[in-house]
Amino acid sequence: MRGFSRAGFCALAWSLLLIGSATAQPATDAGCTASPSAAGPQVWRCDNGVTIVAENGARFELKDANRDGHIDAVELSDKALLVEVPKKPGGNPFKVLTPQAIAAVRGTKWAVDVAETKTSVFVADGRVGVTRRAARGRGVVLGPGEGVDVEATGPLTVKTLTVKTWGQPRVDALMARLGQ
């Protein structure tokens, strides 16, 4: 009984460390561990090579859709994540699901930012496919330095970072929120 109490206390202490930083569902079954952070971004490292940097206060859930014991998706409902996925041939792509969009990839580094009515996706390295979540249809493929804003309606178009909307100040602001 004493060992159980100690384990319960450790679990409670660990969860208290996570409160106020990023809020995620426990990912122990998906092979991920979080680095405790009282303030600032929190880093999740997974045994399949996936790394997730969560903005302070980000709300997300790590998912193991195919139940193989490894994370293969993240459901992001608020704030921003920076995700790095190692390249792997074949198989299902890693996905970040938001209220407005789905960003899928087989190996790259990219950021996803969720606000009330839109999701923004920025690619630092590699390629990311982005589609609307509700009305699956034609999407866009982003390359390094490209970003897209996805709203519930309207055109889904790629915006290169040299364009006013995705200028360097916007990229710098997003990356600063993620400790980059």
Task: Tell me what you see in this structure.
The chain has 180 residues and is an alpha+beta fold. It has one domain (2-177): Jelly Rolls (Sandwich). It contains 2 helices and 14 strands; from the N terminus they run αββββββββββββββα. A hairpin with a 4-residue loop joins strand 3 (42-46) and strand 4. 33% of the residues are buried. It comes from Bradyrhizobium zhengyangense.
Q: Can you give the helix content as a percent range? A: 10-25%
CATH topology, which one?
Answer: Jelly Rolls
Which regions are unreliable across 5 or more consecutive residues at pLDDT < 50?
1-21, 161-165
Sketch the topology as an H/E string, one letter per element.
HEEEEEEEEEEEEEEH
Largest sheet, in brief, is: 14 strands, mixed
Number of helical runs? 2
Termini separation (Å)?
Answer: 44 Å
* Reported CATH architecture: Sandwich
- Radius of gyration, rounded? 17 Å
Oligomer: single chain
Mean pLDDT: 77
CATH class: Mainly Beta
Shape: globular
Helix/strand structural class: alpha+beta
Could you say how many structural domains there are in total?
1
Estimate what percentage of residues fall within beta strands: 35-45%
Count of extended strands: 14
Question: Topology, please?
Answer:
Blueprint: H1 2-18, E1 23-24, E2 32-34, E3 42-46, E4 51-54, E5 59-63, E6 73-85, E7 94-97, E8 101-105, E9 108-114, E10 118-125, E11 128-132, E12 140-142, E13 146-151, E14 159-160, H2 168-177
Parallel strand pairs: 1-5, 6-7
Antiparallel strand pairs: 2-3, 3-4, 4-6, 5-6, 6-9, 7-8, 8-11, 9-10, 10-13, 11-12, 13-14
